[in-house]
User: Fold this.
Amino acid sequence: MADQALLRIRNLKVSFAGFTAVDGVDLDLQAGQMLGIVGESGSGKSVSMMALMGLIDPPGQVSADLLQFDGHDLLRLSPAQRRRLIGKDTAMVFQDAQNSLNPSLTVGDQVREVLRLHLGLRGSALEDRVLQLFQQVEIPAPATRLDAYPHQLSGGMNQRVMIAMAMACQPRLLIADEPTTALDVTIQAQVMALLLRLQQEQGMALVLITHDLAVVAEMAQASAGRVAVMYAGQVVETGTADALFEHPRHPYTAALLAALPEHNRGARRLSTLPGIVPGKLDRPAGCLLAPRCGYAQARCQQERPALVEGVRCFFPLATATAAGAAHG
Assistant:
């Protein structure tokens, strides 16, 4: 139930210089559960989770009615209390490993730093744990990689180092933010399989942020997870992977599904969603999707719908009428 959730977010808002990048997000995540967060670039996916991790620096502003992890309200913890949670019980894998790792330290030293800071490991216990982590994330010949610098490793290998750092303290929640960006397709599949295996073996909750619906469909279905679709800073639809992909109720979800290549076999052109995610100066007064939605009616232009029973739409789709869902 919601009161037993590992993670509870209510009315999360993040703004930068008057622009609301995250606009009233509500999410629940149970211990051991997987949640896929999908949407176009600019939908607020990464910013939402960075707010959770305390990574929004001024002038960015974060507010929420509740931002709770394992019973702790993160917005009311002292900086020292929050540091004890972040990086230990909650960890994040960023999308660009090459730029996230410190180029002047060996990858082994970067993992050692996490273990010293959060677990106080020293000596042989520290060395054993680092090697164990490199083995766990399937780095080939792990003992020979400890003294390598990031520039000496491939993108896929660096991403595995990032995952090893995130897994170092056996977190209860792991957030993976576009973890396969800039990796080739074969390595993408390996990294995703690794994350799914670690999630199942460790029994941790996993949040996967991606714009790739096919990836989140495969991951969420394999782990009986849930999916949240975000658009313009709002969650517009939530549900189980099976229900959401088979019977999308929000026109935006349906349009994203319609654009998948496998749904366009034999077509001369891929189905597309016209327009762009609204920014600070073109934010509609009503439903934020209304200018791009072929189903929009007068009410949609004037009122902003709430998230009701997992969908933010005045006129939710009854069935998976994905093809042409956002076309007038």
